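lol so apparently i was supposed to do this last week
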Amino acid sequence: KLDFAGRLAKRLGAGVREETVHAVDNVDLTIRKGEVVGLVGESGCGKSTLGRMVAGILPPSDGSILRDGTELLDRDSAAARELKLRTQMIFQDPYASLNPRMRVVDIVGEAPLVHGITSRSGFDAYVDEQMRRAGLDPAFKRRYPHQFSGGQRQRIGIARALAVKPDFIVCDEAVAALDVSIQAQILNLFIRLRSELDLTYLFISHDLGVVEHISDRVVIMYLGRVVEEASSETVFASPNHPYTQSLLASVPRIESRKRAFSVVKGEIPSPLNPPPGCHFHPRCPHAMERCKVEKPELKTVAPGQRSACHLNDMA
Ligand code: SF4
Ligand code: MG
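anyway here it is w/ magnesium ion bound
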């Protein structure tokens, strides 16, 4: 079980002035073991920032990250270091995260060797096993990343992550750079690995269609805040928040889509200066006077469904 509660205030240079931005604003998130949680929002909503905080890579400016009750932010604790190793991230661009001068065998095998997960004598067999698991032929392990296709490179990233025996994986737009047919293959690989290895995922994407395919539960973010949270079924069948509704209206079905660019009406406001009250009010078709001044709290609106919208007080 992972419990995250916190916020990150970022200092961003904006022209001559420097301003504090709440990239993640009082978010709390609980992920149960074995669950796949989809984290969705347009670019700049803070979902990558939240993902990096949950993985323990980026400390929040205040808050806590608990894994099975252990505080991940505790630098001196061996338990926290071990939990961080068991948390791996997979990114959008595998090429940028793979050292071009290293052979696949070393990319995959380096960390488990350093951490004593495999020994020198068992090294080759161990690397082969990780490559096979990720759908790669170990016969190619002496090759370099540029000798592989985009989909295969993502598989190298996955093999490298699996090699340290993680139980929690944060995928940040892990299929966004891939062709649709390859996307489906990689998503199916994630689904298979989840049951084979008892993995838990936080699956970050701007693309609701991708998230629907893999998630048990979906969390929707808008400008640093969680606006809705529910089971995947509920989000797609009866979304509560007007932002979720407009995101859904813009999602072509997965079979027919080309690239799912968000077409929610209106510009995304700058996170440097988010609108007061409900951040979504300038784009919301239902906005009322109250929405411009008062921040809506995340409240339970149905069993297992939370939403932050003033409309729920009017029913
Ligand atoms: Fe729209 Fe108001 Fe609800 Fe925000 S609180 S989503 S502006 S109706
Ligand atoms: Mg991002």
